[in-house]
């Protein structure tokens, strides 16, 4: 029995040693994922440029293709637009003949995990009012990009605002004081009775 016990012990030791060697080699063979931040930043900057060209061409559907279905748009002086339908409605009011909008990214930062990024930059737009008069605006923007399951980058949040000073609030129309048809009695109006 002693020799059989020794054989089982030796076999277990060999298996344990082999397992330790395999685990060690596997751990040594695994490397940290490559740092793709620079390549991802270049991709996002290129996508942002393509997106600006779609908007400049007043292409609503092309413009929408850069958003996720559940994206949010945070325009100035308006409620947040959540989801494709709400964002499409906003772009449809901007991207009409006579209007133009374009932007350029100045900074793109990608997370170490390479699944989230943000870009900032400046925009320029020319809009026509109801009377056909053009108004120009310059401003800045912030976009949050998220890498999708298929590896493509799409925007999940889009915010922008103008560099122009805010318009002064409209003054309320001056109301005339209502004229009183009733004359108040004063000591001079009272008649003395005798």
Keywords for this structure?
six-stranded mixed sheet; Nuclear Transport Factor 2, Chain: A; 194 residues; elongated; 30% strand; alpha+beta; 4 helices
Describe this structure in words.
With 194 residues, the chain is of the alpha+beta class. It has a domain at 37-161: Roll (Nuclear Transport Factor 2, Chain: A), CATH 3.10.450.50. Helices cover 33% and strands 30% of the residues. Strands 2-1-6-5-4-3 form a six-stranded mixed beta sheet, covered by helices on one side. Strand 1 and strand 2 (81-82) form a beta hairpin. The radius of gyration is 35 Å and the shape is elongated. The chain starts with a helix and ends in a 32-residue tail after the last strand.
Runs in which pLDDT lies below 50 for 5 or more consecutive residues are 183-194
Name given to the CATH architecture of the domain at 37-161 = Roll
For the secondary structure, the number of strands is 6
Helix content: 25-40%
* Mean residue pLDDT: 84
Which CATH class of the domain at 37-161 is shown? Alpha Beta
The count of helical stretches stands at 4
Strand adjacency order, main sheet = 2-1-6-5-4-3
Strand content: 25-35%
CATH topology of the domain at 37-161: Nuclear Transport Factor 2, Chain: A
Distance between the termini: 146 Å
Tell me, briefly, the overall form: elongated
**Largest sheet geometry:** 6 strands, mixed
Helix/sheet category: alpha+beta
């Amino acid at each position: 029995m002693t020799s059989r016990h020794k054989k089982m012990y030796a076999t277990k030791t060999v298996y344990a040693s082999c397992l330790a060697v395999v685990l060690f080699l596997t751990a040594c063979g695994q490397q940290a994922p490559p740092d793709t931040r620079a390549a991802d930043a270049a991709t996002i900057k290129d996508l942002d440029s393509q997106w600006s060209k779609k908007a400049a061409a007043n292409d609503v559907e092309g413009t929408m293709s850069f958003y996720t279905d559940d994206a949010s748009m945070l325009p100035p002086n308006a409620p947040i637009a959540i989801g494709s339908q709400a964002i499409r409605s906003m772009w449809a009011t901007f991207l009409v003949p006579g209007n133009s909008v374009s932007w350029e990214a100045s900074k793109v930062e990608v997370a170490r995990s390479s699944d989230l990024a943000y870009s900032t930059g400046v925009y320029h737009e020319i809009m026509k009012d109801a009377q056909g008069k053009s108004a120009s605006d310059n401003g800045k923007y912030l976009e949050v990009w998220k890498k999708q399951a298929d590896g493509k980058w799409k925007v999940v949040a889009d915010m922008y605002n103008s560099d122009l000073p805010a318009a002064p609030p409209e003054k309320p129309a001056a109301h005339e004081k209502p004229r009183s048809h009733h004359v108040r009695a004063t000591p001079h109006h009272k008649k003395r009775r005798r």
